Amino acid sequence: MPVQTTPDWVSNPLNIVDKIFANDSTGYQQDATMLRAAVEAAFLGRIKSDTSDYRHLVPLINGLSKEQLQAIPTNSLVRFRCMVRDERPSSYHQGFLQVRQLNSGDIKAVCAMFRDGVVLEMGEQVVAFGERGALSEMRSLKCVSLPVESAWSRAIHEHGKSTSDKPLDPSQPVLVANFFAEAGASVAVNDAVELFGLLSFDDPMLPSPERGAGDSPAISAFPVQHDEMRLNVLLYEDLLHTHPALPLDKTRILSMSREDGFSFVRVRESLMELLKFCLNGDALGAEYLLLHLISSIYARADDQAIGNFPLNLTGMPQDVTFVKRLLGTLENILTQLAVFPMSIATLNSALMAPKMTEVPGTIDNELLPGLLQLPKHTHLALDELGMDTGTLNDTGCRNLLALQKLVSDQKLDFNFLFGQTIPFLMDIPVLVLSQGKSLVNCRCIVPLSPNGAAVDCAALDEEIIWQIRQYLVTVRFLDYEIPPEMREAIVNKFVTSRKADRSISPDDLHQQLELARYMTISHGEVVLTQQRWDEVLHLESERSRRLKETGIR
Hints:
With about 550 residues, the chain is α+β, with helices and mostly antiparallel strands. The chain contains 16 helices and 22 strands. One of its GO terms (molecular function) is chromatin binding.
């Protein structure tokens, strides 16, 4: 087998940047965004095409220790799959230099973008900072590896393997991603992105292995902090999802679902059997859990998160094995799952929402991450089976309020200085596991009724598991519509039912419509039919019956 060599665009990406700049140095100095766009296009064309993806040629730095990161060759291209944790105040960089060769007197323009600094050749001297001598704004974001990524997903991304027991290294340092020439304007805190850029640690003004103390001088493009890991970003992509084998494009994702061997109906049946096995044969609980797993926020109106479908499975047996099997199964089919064991002690001590704090000895502030600071489409399971008696302190009360606001409104308040809070919009499906009434109010409560009549799915075929993983991501991208005749029939039925029973509320109709959406797309369909609507009404009727029997409201 031939040894795979590293492409020159990976080992020497700045060569490409400099060649692009040389093609129109005067024009690019007048408009740095044109240079940034040209560089993005050049590397995007190398990373992927309409039919192929070559990002695997770029070394992935997730999971590497600080020592391993420092061993990466300077100015080589790397990629980082991450979540934006915080944003630094705006800073400025010098994008272009005018350099004179002292012997000949010739002056040339040099690009200083996408790098910490420029190393001058012997006999060169900077005579001006660009044609206009102006500094350009640089956006810097603090990024961390994607939190709570499932072991199977992380292993494939990092090593190409399907399984891994290696936990994510919590000591991996925070990376500061620098965006140039108005790049990254749409990237926000909590966003999940894949960055392609040049990794650096050292101060460009200090000697390095590539440039000894007696070599040519270096000109810093912007101030850097000592021992800080930086990534000067050439290109980035929003992570629509974190599945390791699906493209980051809706059209291509849906196209893969039409390939031979994949059937929404068949995979749904396999997933139902798996979930029934986890719930000891409870088909109703499995149905609601399946619909919850494919839920997401698809719109916001009147301050409401449309698509939010938190689920409380109550009547959970006090059995560690039962809960461990359920959560283990979910981690094996979801790409990201966070589990929070709720107790008086954990609520009273945990930091749920991010909190701004002052850095001692400086005038800077930093955002301390909270447990709920998660990228969209991360699933959160609240395990209340360990809840004991006791009193919540101030921290515990604040944490419970943060959980309730996330469950109800899909918002998380970031705590800034001087008591100021800013709500951030979230998209985190929340599953609550409890024995009785939960501390967190969920609109949809399903009392479990295990009957033990489930097929043992502990050793499902790996191909089926892989298709379930694909299914759970793909269905989120299906279009959906309600035909006019169905819409009219639903409204008329609601009006008639409410006249007969005033306890029926618009919230009930809203939940039925949400369930109808998820029931439809869960079968791979995009148009609501009478059959799917009747199935939803049957589910809600059975759930209502169980709630009356258990006395839970």
